[in-house]
């Protein structure tokens, strides 16, 4: 059971870090055995509720009822999985069932109760049931089984005393551990503490994930072009990999060969790497925004909620851009980092913010480029920053941030995703081919191609007499 937190304790937030595992073959098999046993617990719960539904009985959805059924099954029913790990699966099922019931009562009739089986289910252990010393993690198993000790790939980013749970899961083609910690809110000096009366507006976008307009006309632009390039290159690579293996794909109902399973595993690893890159870039962008707000003592962030555009059919290409945007994850990351820094976040409707002048509040045609200009008051500035100024004025309870007539404050430019391929100074992805040289240019010097199988070196001469180091060859351009 999760630890009951004292109501008198200082406010805190929970953070989760995902860490890979360094496993031997035997440890890997035991970890998969735990995940499969958790999947059996999930399947048994589904079957019990299916029988009850056919008989017209009440479903077994409460956590206490499910724990009693687990106790009746007896020890050793689910292999090496201990009681704590099995109860975490029951807790997951109970939460999913009651969440679906609440949404259906609210009118969302398309929501369904959990009825799908899963081969591998994540297993969670709470504080006091596991041991973590440095990178060595000891996971609890059933009584009478040898202890399971695994090694983490990196150090845990949280203090040892703040850990609350660890979760073993298989995602993106690899086994990993989710470490959840309870962290207190960041304390600031009295003179540098965030002021709730200082408001900044944030406009979310694809090219610029965050456009922030703060007090005094100061602004921040976070470029997301590296993230967009990563999405495009990943899509191109996926298409290129799929074409040659399409003919080897098993037919429906077939298991597939060992070669096909290796191909699918490689595809999952590449897909997981792409997701981690994008997720890390979003974290970097949100961290930049929160750091910028803390430096200027901004205590309230008013964010325009653009999730309404997801319901619009904007065509095949733009629908793909919206799907890759990950609006929900971006908002969640920003809210989590703001809560840790003690900054409040308000979500408001952003409708019309890009076509409203922030100075005179009159409607103007939405510009096709990145710059916005008002024909009524001669306001000029960046389109996303102008939308952020307009969003700031929609803060519940009023806002102290008032836009200037012209953006005369300091605009800070930052880039998200510096770790992505091609995000260096050259701004070119290393996976692309080198650029073509201009017409008439000799380009990079290369040796002349051989004519057939005959070498151009005279037979009487030693072709390697000019070699200076082992393995080195030199040539003279024509």
Query: In the CATH classification, which architecture of the largest domain applies?
Result: 2-Layer Sandwich
Rg (CA only): 29 Å
The helix/strand series, from N terminus to C terminus, equals EHHHEEEEEEEEEHHEHHEEEHE
Strand order, main sheet: write it out.
2-6-7-1-5-4-3
CATH superfamily of the largest domain: YqgF/RNase H-like domain
Q: End-to-end distance, in Å?
A: 77 Å
Oligomeric state, counting identical vs distinct chains: single chain
Low-confidence stretches are 402-406, 453-478
Characterization of this structure:
It comes from Paractinoplanes globisporus. Keywords: DNA recombination, DNA-binding, Endonuclease, Hydrolase, Nuclease, Transposition. This is RNA-guided endonuclease InsQ/TnpB family protein. Residues 249-265 have a biased composition (Basic residues). InterPro entries: Cas12f1-like_TNB, Transposase. This protein has eight helices and 15 strands. The strands form three sheets. A seven-stranded antiparallel β-sheet has the order 2-6-7-1-5-4-3. The chain has a six-stranded mixed β-sheet with strand order 12-11-8-9-10-15. A two-stranded antiparallel sheet has the order 13-14. It has 478 residues and is of the alpha+beta class. The protein is 33% helix and 19% strand. The chain starts with 11 loop residues before the first strand and ends in a 63-residue tail after the last strand. It has two domains: 20-183, no CATH class; 191-245 and 265-415, Nucleotidyltransferase, domain 5, CATH 3.30.420.140. Strand 3 (131-133) and strand 4 (136-139) form a beta hairpin.
